[in-house]
Design brief:
With 189 residues, the chain is mainly alpha-helical. It is built from seven helices and three strands. The protein has a three-stranded antiparallel beta sheet with strand order 1-2-3. Helix 1 packs parallel to helix 7, helix 3 packs antiparallel against helix 4 and helix 4 crosses helix 6.
Length: 189
């Protein structure tokens, strides 16, 4: 099952009358749910567009593409978190715990290092930059001062595959929670 298919299933359930009866959501939460689903799908489209670029047409230095795919992955994770938080009604789980649970922390750190706040990480204690010179579609390196020199080699293909797998697991968990919660009132009847 793809991320898009998983989102479609959740969307269909959320439009169900039983969903709206069980989840008495205020307008803000309802809007967050549908916006989160849309964000997850839009980001997946962007990631797939990136993957669809033939390697022989990829520029030698692809900073814009790197920033774009990292930001898409980051935003997709945010959408998943907000969907999860409202559906599971679990205000106890914070974002960091969610990102750990679904193995998103490493790619979030990479994005923050080079596309989030590269010149002022940890209140200026760390600074990062994408290495100059050529990179490839899926492999690049970045470096920085932490305060010692640090070099990081990134395999974007691996991170994209891991995120796809983990996102589908998160979406299945969300769909299962919806199904379980809708079934509870039926069982009591």
């Amino acid at each position: 099952m793809t991320i898009q298919q998983s989102c479609d299933k959740i969307n269909n359930v959320m439009c169900n009358e039983q969903f709206t009866k069980y989840y008495s959501l205020n307008d803000s939460d309802f809007n967050i749910l549908f916006t989160s689903l849309d964000l997850i799908e839009d980001c997946q489209n962007a990631i797939e567009e990136y993957e669809g670029i033939p390697e022989d047409e990829f520029p030698l230095r692809s900073t814009l593409y790197i920033y774009g795919v990292l930001q898409s992955m980051y935003c997709q994770q945010d959408g998943l978190f907000h969907l999860y938080e409202i559906i599971l009604n679990d205000k106890r789980i914070n974002e960091d715990e969610f990102y750990k649970r679904y193995n998103f922390t490493q790619i979030r750190a990479i994005r923050n290092d080079i596309a989030g706040h590269p010149s002022y990480r940890n209140k200026g204690k760390k600074v990062y930059f994408i290495a100059k010179g050529p990179n490839s579609k899926y492999k690049f390196k970045y470096a920085g001062y932490t305060p010692g020199f640090r070099e990081v080699h990134v395999d974007l293909k691996k991170h994209i595959e891991e995120q796809s797998y983990s996102s589908i697991i998160a979406l299945i968990d969300i769909k299962d929670a919806i199904s379980k919660n809708i079934q509870l009132p039926k069982d009591k009847f």
